[in-house]
Amino acid sequence: MDKGKIIFIGVALAAVLFAVLGIRKAQPGPVESLYLGQVETLMARGIEDDSYKGALEEVKRYATFAMTQDVEAEYPDGEQADKALKALMDVYHDVNSDVEEEASKVMRQGRAKELAQDGLAFIKKQVEARVQVRGFLYYGMAGALAFAVFLTLALKSLKLSRRSKDRLIQACFMVTAMTSILILFLIMLFLFREGLPIFEKISVSDFIFGQYWYPTEEEDPEFGIFALIIGSFSVTALSSIIAIPLGVMTAIYLAEIATPGVRNVVKPIIELLASLPSVVIGFFGMVIVAPFLQNTFGISTGLNMFNASIMLAFMSVPTITSVSEDAIFAVPGELKEGALALGATHFETIWTVVIPASISGIATAVILGMSRAIGETMVVLMVAGGAAMMPTSIFDPVRPMPASIAAEMGEAPFQSDHYFALFATGIVLFIFTLIFNVVADHIAQKYRQVGAATL
Predict the structure, then answer these.
(1) Chain centroid offset of residue 327 CA
(2) What are the start-end ranges of the H helices in 253-300?
(3) What CA–CA distance (Å, rounded) separates 23 from 309?
């Protein structure tokens, strides 16, 4: 059996496996079964609780009692019973959180009547939705693999020519690329649709250059985001001052100075740093860096612009290093050999030949690193201090635009002025990020080398 048939059979079996897993995951678990069972029991008794909170408390009370009884009956040993009950309670709290979160969303959207009409039906709907969502991922994977199997069989049965197959594959790639563009366009359309209404209440100049951000004031709310913009740019600029030299010099060392053994060890470690979750980096900044800065510099708080800049630099360095190292390593060897043949030292060759030849890739890496810094949310939310004011020192707390959106979106009433203002802030952030990427593409094209130095 050739390699192609083995891959084909493996993909088909994987599709079946994902479909089976989807069926299993779409079944309610023990806690969810208790919820649904109690809701159906109350409905069968003709109990119509108009209060969502009252209905939820009734269902929760029954679920807690039933879980305890089931665990005590199944596990005579006390230690095993405690572990089993703890596992069930974790799921129990997750179910409660999902139902209550959806209820809060309905309340913010001004649809409180849905909760008042029949609380039991709302709870049943949310628990069933939670169960169904678990299976969607597996069903999607099974469908994608099944489509791949079907497409392979169809191509083999049609016995297309090589040129026809190439055109078909090209068309598939084109559809995929256009789908990505369409999704981006729809996201942008939604962003502008939700953000532009705020400018019916406030002018664009007052919104962008306004000094005060007090969106929750009942009598006279303020929607000026200039302090948020300055906070974003200050944190990004300071993090770039730290990250760019460190990232580029590390890339030069890995590509031109380090031995193959050192490069093979260090480069994967740097690339793994890029996979660290931002919440972990933010937690490190809160627990380790903030007390250190506070004790070392004698400042009132360690959650400030400098702390956020250090954490963002830590996140940007892997991107800058990886992309820059690839660009430097791709410089043709004959250019370096020619410089060495003319009597240049290794350092002079790096400075006068390698860096100019790879400046396009290095510039792109720098812009990409800065784009990640200006758009990062969790780190600046955790360690920047959260103060929407103009900074006068690198040790002042600031509130960048992503942090403000993340912190306030969950509390803003649906389609209120506050809600629209946060989406308008997202528009401004989107435009700045787009400018960064356009600048990166322009620099890459402008300084692209030709001939042997094409990168």
Answers:
(1) 26
(2) 260-273, 278-284, 290-297
(3) 47
Per the CB < 8 A criterion, the answer to whether 286 and 379 are in contact is no
Name beta bridge partners: 214: 222
Answer yes or no: are the C-beta atoms of 55 and 120 closer than 8 Å: yes
- The C-alpha atoms of residue 153 and residue 11 are separated, in whole angstroms, by 12
pLDDT in tens, 88-147: 788 778 887 877 877 777 776 666 666 666 777 777 788 888 887 777 878 888 888 888
The conformation of residue 453, written as its DSSP 8-state character, comes to: G
CA contacts within 13 A on the Cβ side of 372: 22
Of 358, 225, 246, 391, the residue nearest 312 (C-alpha): 246
Q: Which SS3 state, helix, strand or coil, does residue 398 take? A: strand
Phi, psi of 55 (to 5 degrees): -65, -45
Find all residues with CB under 8 Å of 325, minimum gap 6, and list them.
250, 251, 254, 255, 267
Rounded distance, CA 28 to CA 132, Å?
A: 9
Asked whether 43 and 123 are in contact (CB, 8 A), the reply is: no
Q: Give the position of tokens 């809701």.
A: 39
DSSP-derived 3-state class of residue 171:
helix
pTM more than 0.90: no
- Cα 202 from Cα 11, distance rounded (Å): 56
Q: What tokens were used for 379?
A: 């780190």
What are the angstrom distances between the C-alpha of 282 and each of 52, 286, 426?
A: 37, 6, 22
- Scan for tokens 């009433």, then name that residue: 413
- Per-residue pLDDT tens digits for 171-230: 888 988 898 899 989 999 999 998 999 998 889 999 999 888 888 877 788 889 999 999
Task: Provide the b/e sequence for 424-437 (b: ≥16 CB within 10 Å).
Answer: bbbbbbbebeeebe
